[in-house]
Structures are given as structure tokens and as C-alpha cells.
Amino acid sequence: MSKRAIDIDENRLEYTISISMPEFTQDNLSVNVNKDMLKISVRKQSMMAENMEKVYERSFKLPANANKESITAKLKSGVLSVRIPKHFYNANRLNLSG
């Protein structure tokens, strides 16, 4: 399968991965998180040949501030969008006495 265009964007609140996948449907899609890795897999049986299968797999190392429990994925108009919210840690400022 040919290489896919991948866009990775970041803003203050989240990371977004966008991948063009016009020939796939949501039924063919799998997005999994295992420790600090995000894995995207899609599989589709070819209509032209009985034993042919189109497969695309790609893994991404998640940043340390990724909120792994809140990752979402959506396939719309042939584009897979994976949203990875950022964790925000409260850095409490300590008062120094002296």
C-alpha cells in the first residue's frame, strides 16, 4: 500500500494526528494505546482478489504529557483524526522562608 499523508498538529490543549484514508471505513479501523505507544491499523479485503487484503499500520510514541485515557479517533470524509489531549499538572509554587 502506498504511503499516506500524515499531519501532526499541536496546540495548547492537545495533539492531533490526521491521516488520509479514503478507501477505508470505520469498520476496518483499529486504534489502540499500549503503554506509551499509539497504534493505528486498518484492514480491508480486496474485492478484486479473494485472498488480497489491504493493510495499513502505523505506530506513534506518545509524548509524556499525553492523556492516554482521553484519546479519541474519528473517520470522516476519508480522513482519520486522532485527538490526544494533554495532561496538565498543577505545579504548586512553594513559599520560601528565609
Which tags fit this structure?
four-stranded antiparallel sheet; 7 strands; mainly beta; elongated; 98 residues; single chain
Short synopsis of the structure:
This protein has 98 residues and is mainly beta. 0% of the residues lie in helices and 49% in strands.
Poorly predicted sequence stretches spanning 5 or more consecutive residues = none
Q: Number of helix segments?
A: 0
Instruction: Compute the separation of the termini in Å.
Output: 66 Å
Topology order in helix (H) and strand (E) letters: EEEEEEE
**What is the radius of gyration computed over CA atoms, rounded to a whole number of angstroms?**
18 Å
Number of strands: 7
What characterizes the major β-sheet?
4 strands, antiparallel
Biggest sheet: strands side by side, in what order?
Answer: 1-2-7-6
Please, what is the average pLDDT? 86
Share of helical residues = under 10%
